[in-house]
Amino acid sequence: MRTEFLLLAQYDGLAVIPLDRVCADYFPHLSPEKMKHKISRGEIRLPLIYIERSQKSARGVHLADLAAYIDARRAEAQKGM
To answer: Which Pfam families match (predicted)?
Structure first.
């Protein structure tokens, strides 16, 4: 089954998932602020989408990018087996 379809179901068809939800579901050990820092430093390779060019604008992760990230992590884990 394709990861994108599973995420579509999980997030009720949202194309851009709010950062706080991504954190809660997949990075519960990180706050959204800490995750933003890790993304900006390249420690987590997920592109962040800013809805506007304002520092206060909503941030999120595109569903396809999250699916690709999950699939890459899975492939990496399978290589280690």
So the answer is: PyocinActivator
